[in-house]
C-alpha cells in the first residue's frame, strides 16, 4: 500500500473516531445531561441526535421510564399500639435531570435509599394515627394517597424525581401476636355465626308454624267442601230414588229384593237363617209378590 493510500485510511479512521466521540443519541425512553469537566453544560437533553466536544464533554444517560422501588419490610405500631409488618413499594420517575444529577450524582442506589427512608418515616407516622381496622380496610387508600402526595413534594424538591404512587403489597401481623389475634377473630366469627344460626332457627320455627297453620286451614276447608258435595250428592241420589219409587213402587221393591239376594248369596259358603214367613223371600214364595 502506498503512503498516499495509508494517509487516506488513517484520515478516515480519525474522522470515524472523531464522529464517534462527537455524536450521541438520546432515545425517547431516556433522560440525560452533558458534562464538561464535571460541570453540567446541557441539562435535560431532548430525544434525538446531539453533538459534544470529543474527549472533553461527557454524557450521562438515565432511564426516564417509571421505576419500581421495593421498600424494605418494616414493623409499625397502630393507634392502639398493635404491631403490623408492612411490605410496600414506590413508583417514581425522573423529572428534573439537572437536580437529580446534582443531588445523587446519578447514583440510583442513593436515590432508592433516600426514597425508602422518607417513605418509611411517613408510613410510620400514618400507621400510628390509624387503628388496625382502618389500616386493613377503611382508610388505607386515603392514607396511601396522603403519603404519595407528601413524598412526591419532598422528592421533587430534593431529588428532582416525581413519586407517582405508593402502595402496600402486604400487611401481616408479627408471629408473636398473630396467634392471639387469630384466636380472637375466630371467637368473634364463631359468636357471629351462632347468632345467625339462632336467628335462622327462630325464622325456621315461625315458617314451619305458619305452614302448619295454613295446612290445617286448607284441610279444614277441603273437608268442608267435600262434606257439602257429599251431602248434595246424597240428597240428589235420595231424590232420584224417591222419584223412581213413585213411578213404579212394586217394580222398585222387586229390584231392591233382587239386589239384596245377589249381595246376600255372593259366596257358596254364605248361610242365611230366616223365618219361613219372612218378607225377605216374598218374591220367591209368591208370584205376585204381595
Topology, please?
Elements: H1 3-22, E1 23-26, E2 30-36, E3 39-42, E4 48-51, E5 57-63, E6 67-77, E7 83-94, H2 97-104, H3 108-128, H4 132-138, H5 140-159, E8 161-172, H6 175-247, H7 249-264, H8 282-285
Helix pairs in contact: 3-5, 6-7
Domain Band: 21-185
Family: Belongs to the band 7/mec-2 family. HflC subfamily.
Pfam families: Band_7 (PF01145)
Please provide a written account of the structure.
58% of the residues lie in helices and 21% in strands. The strands form 3 sheets. The protein has a 3-stranded antiparallel beta sheet with strand order 3-2-5, covered by helices on one side. The chain has a 3-stranded antiparallel beta sheet with strand order 6-7-8. Helix 3 (108-128) runs antiparallel to helix 5 and helix 6 packs across helix 7. The protein has 8 helices and 8 strands; from the N terminus they run αβββββββααααβααα. By secondary structure, the protein is an alpha+beta fold. It is elongated. The mean pLDDT is 80. It folds into 4 domains: 3-63, no CATH class; 67-172, Tetrahydropterin Synthase, Chain A, CATH 3.30.479.30; 192-247; 249-285, no CATH class. The longest helix has 73 residues, at 175-247.
Amino acid at each position: 500500500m502506498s503512503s498516499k493510500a495509508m494517509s487516506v485510511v488513517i484520515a478516515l479512521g480519525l474522522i470515524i473516531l472523531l464522529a464517534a466521540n462527537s455524536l450521541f443519541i438520546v432515545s425517547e425512553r431516556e433522560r440525560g445531561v452533558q458534562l464538561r469537566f464535571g460541570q453540567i453544560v446541557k441539562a435535560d437533553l431532548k430525544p434525538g441526535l446531539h453533538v459534544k466536544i470529543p474527549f472533553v464533554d461527557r454524557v450521562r444517560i438515565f432511564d426516564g421510564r417509571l421505576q419500581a422501588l421495593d421498600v424494605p419490610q418494616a414493623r409499625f405500631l397502630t393507634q392502639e399500639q398493635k404491631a403490623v409488618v408492612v411490605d410496600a413499594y414506590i413508583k417514581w420517575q425522573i423529572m428534573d435531570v439537572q437536580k437529580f444529577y446534582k443531588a445523587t450524582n446519578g447514583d440510583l442506589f442513593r436515590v432508592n435509599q433516600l426514597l425508602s427512608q422518607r417513605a418509611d418515616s411517613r408510613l410510620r407516622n400514618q400507621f400510628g394515627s390509624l387503628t388496625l381496622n382502618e389500616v386493613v380496610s377503611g382508610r388505607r387508600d386515603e392514607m396511601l394517597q396522603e403519603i404519595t402526595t407528601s413524598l412526591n413534594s419532598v422528592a421533587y424538591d430534593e431529588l428532582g424525581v416525581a413519586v407517582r404512587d405508593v402502595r402496600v403489597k402486604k400487611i401481616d401481623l408479627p408471629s408473636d401476636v398473630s396467634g392471639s389475634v387469630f384466636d380472637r377473630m375466630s371467637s368473634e366469627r364463631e359468636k357471629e355465626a351462632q347468632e345467625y344460626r339462632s336467628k335462622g332457627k327462630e325464622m325456621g320455627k315461625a315458617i314451619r308454624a305458619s305452614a302448619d297453620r295454613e295446612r290445617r286451614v286448607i284441610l279444614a276447608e277441603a273437608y268442608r267442601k267435600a262434606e257439602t258435595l257429599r251431602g248434595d250428592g246424597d240428597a240428589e241420589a235420595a231424590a232420584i230414588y224417591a222419584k223412581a219409587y213413585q213411578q213404579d213402587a212394586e217394580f222398585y221393591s222387586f229390584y231392591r229384593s233382587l239386589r239384596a239376594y245377589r249381595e246376600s248369596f255372593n259366596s257358596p259358603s254364605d248361610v242365611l237363617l230366616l223365618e219361613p214367613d219372612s218378607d225377605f223371600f216374598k218374591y220367591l214364595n209368591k208370584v205376585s209378590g204381595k
